[in-house]
Amino acid sequence: MRKNIVAGNWKMNTTLQEGVALAEEVNAAVKAAEHNCDVVICVPFTHLATISEKICKDSLGLGAENCADHKSGAYTGEVSAAMVASTGAGYVILGHSERRQYYGETSETLREKVALAFENNLTPIFCIGEVLEERENGTYFDVVKKQIVDALFHLSAEDFGKIILAYEPVWAIGTGKTATADQAEDMHAFIRGVIAEKYGKEVADNTSILYGGSCKPSNAKELFAKPDVDGGLIGGAALKCADFMGIVEAFN
Ligand code: PEP
């Protein structure tokens, strides 16, 4: 059966020293807390190797926020999936809306990134979600379905089963504007149906679908209580241990 997961996305925040301190604080808090979910932190590339040495990965998973769409070679400034894996990280966020919007990521590049993540035993946390205009003009189900179909539906059922999905309505990311629990559930149930149509009910039932977008301690419980919401991808609130733990403890 699918797992409950709370994953932090630190984005481009914290120096190495600040990041190590935060990771150590979160690691200690997760060990002490009552919770019924996996917990992961996805951190800047520069922090991975050091944090990897400092945390207990049985209780706190570690991931990158992106990886390159090429294996290795003359791609100045890029960081490969193999490099990420060599730090001891086990996860990688792929297709975050900020990467799609500011760095031109397409389904085509994301297919390459997913393949390289798998080659290196990294679990992709694959982001999908509509922008405000698409929410308002009613095309949001079609948009999200297309993102999944174009980037992931070439995968075998076995490989698809290794993906964690994160539904992140772009209009709710970093805006303080959360999707209501009902809006999240409607989309998550729809996504599970799309997966079931392609791969069957068992694969769909086993896929963890996280919600992301201004999730905080005050709304996490209501969101996570929905049957198809299996946890959260957390941006801003992942930068304060107490806030992040308030969300983790929504699963207890
Ligand atoms: C995110 O960027 O993945 C995110 C969900 O951000 P926030 O929680 O800050 O809206």
Could you describe the 3D structure shown?
- The protein has an 8-stranded parallel β-barrel, surrounded by 6 helices.
- The chain is α/β, with parallel strands linked by helices and 252 residues long.
- It is built from 12 helices and 8 strands.
- The protein is globular and about 45 Å long.
- The protein has helices at residues 16-32, 45-54, 81-86, 97-103, 107-119, 132-136, 140-152, 157-160, 181-199, 201-206, 217-224, 241-248; strands spanning 5-9, 38-42, 61-64, 91-94, 123-128, 164-167, 209-212, 231-234.
- α3 (81-86) links the parallel β3 (61-64) and β4.
- Helix content is 46%, strand content 14%.
- Phosphoenolpyruvate (PEP) binds at residues 9, 168, 173-174, 212-215, 233-237.
- Phosphoenolpyruvate binds at residues 9, 168, 173-174, 212-215, 233-237.
Helix-strand blueprint:
Elements: E1 5-9, H1 16-32, E2 38-42, H2 45-54, E3 61-64, H3 81-86, E4 91-94, H4 97-103, H5 107-119, E5 123-128, H6 132-136, H7 140-152, H8 157-160, E6 164-167, H9 181-199, H10 201-206, E7 209-212, H11 217-224, E8 231-234, H12 241-248
Helix pairs in contact: 1-2, 1-12, 5-7, 9-11, 11-12
Ligand catalogue? phosphoenolpyruvate
Catalogue the unreliable spans. none
From the alpha-carbon coordinates, what is the Rg to the nearest angstrom?
17 Å
The topology string of helices and strands comes to EHEHEHEHHEHHHEHHEHEH
Widest β-sheet, arrangement of strands: 1-2-3-4-5-6-7-8
